[in-house]
Design brief:
This protein is α/β, with parallel strands linked by helices. It contains 9 helices and 10 strands.
């Protein structure tokens, strides 16, 4: 039995686990399942809310009335934080990487509509975003507010609980469907979802391999980041687990030109899945991971997912990220 710290009930859970019936992968005769975490809510849809259930609970325990967090201009995490702040009556201050666009679209539009205070930091100043956040905390304190800083993607030792709990939910899904998957696939951008799934799998003794496709950084970065998060998690919550026993596997090669930029093959994969299953991915996270998974499954035993029969893809959301990139879709 996993003992959890304080948690808010913010997401619509459990999310469904469904099998794709019409989408076919050439050369793959197994079953493809999707954990529908884009259905955790409407405005706050996606994986971030699972982590924020624990992070915001922690902030409230500390007596905070303000949340400060950071990410890209189209950050799903920042959008979810802004909207949850509005729902809970908390002030939210976002630090976004880049310059303010002339027209707010997608997630940024929702940030503004939810009433978030927004500061933009140019790319060449982004290394100092944590210091910027610390200065904001001091400014809020001077005005009588107490602010809690949540890192990028809510991916730290507190947010790690989100996908530990999600794995426990997956284990119940597997029992219900009499399913023993070979692989569980996810996109990874800040490491929290990947890390939580790995720890959850380890705690519950699952044989399924957790495989992540990176949308930024490198496999070595995620290995170090997850080990660091798990180490801090152990210290904070007095949990006994050996980091060296965790199988941290990140498959490279499908990131595309850069974070937030995708090749045509990713947009084609998004359109194909939408057309066959009515299921929508985004070009920043899920589209890249799904394209990577399909590409490797097509290679069969020659690919990096050998022996795959039942594969579970964790749909981490990101629908609003489609709209700012609509020009990249081709329609006849």
């Amino acid at each position: 039995m996993i003992k959890y710290p304080p948690r808010l009930q913010l997401a619509n859970l459990p999310t469904p686990l469904t099998k794709l019936e019409k989408f076919k992968i050439p050369g793959f005769d197994g079953n493809l399942w999707v954990k529908r975490d884009e259905l955790t809510g409407t405005e706050v849809s996606g994986n971030k809310i699972r982590k924020l259930e624990f992070c915001i609970a922690h902030a409230l325990e500390e007596g905070c009335n303000t949340l400060i967090t950071c990410g890209g201009v189209q950050s799903n995490h920042c959008r979810a934080t802004a909207i949850l702040g509005a729902q809970l009556g908390l002030k939210v201050h976002l630090i976004l990487r880049g310059v303010r666009p002339e027209l707010p679209e997608g997630n940024l539009l929702l940030d503004y509509l939810a009433g978030a205070e927004i500061s933009f930091l140019p790319q060449d100043e982004w290394d100092g975003h944590e210091s910027f956040a610390q200065n904001l905390q001091e400014q809020y304190l001077a005005s009588g507010d107490k602010a809690h800083f949540i890192p990028i993607g809510a991916s730290d030792e507190i947010g790690l609980w989100g996908y530990i709990a999600a794995y426990e939910e997956l284990a119940e899904d597997f029992k219900r469907h009499s399913l023993d998957p070979d692989y569980i696939i996810t996109a990874t951008g800040s490491g929290g979802t990947q890390g939580g799934l790995i720890v959850g799998s380890h705690l519950l003794g699952s044989r399924a391999k957790i495989i992540a496709f990176n949308v930024c950084d490198s496999a070595s970065y995620f290995k170090n980041k997850i080990k660091e998060d798990v180490s801090l998690w152990k210290q904070r919550y007095k949990v006994e687990i050996e980091e060296t026993e965790l199988n941290i596997t990140t498959l490279e090669g499908y990131m595309g030109p850069a974070y937030g930029e995708a090749d045509n093959s990713v947009f084609e994969a998004i359109a194909s899945l939408a057309r066959t299953e009515g299921l929508f991915l985004d070009p920043v996270y899920t589209g890249k991971a799904f394209h990577g998974m399909v590409s490797e499954l097509q290679l069969g035993q020659e690919g990096k997912l050998p022996g795959a029969n039942d594969v579970v893809f964790v749909h981490t959301g990101g629908l609003f990220g489609i709209f700012p990139q609509q020009r990249n879709f081709q329609f006849s």
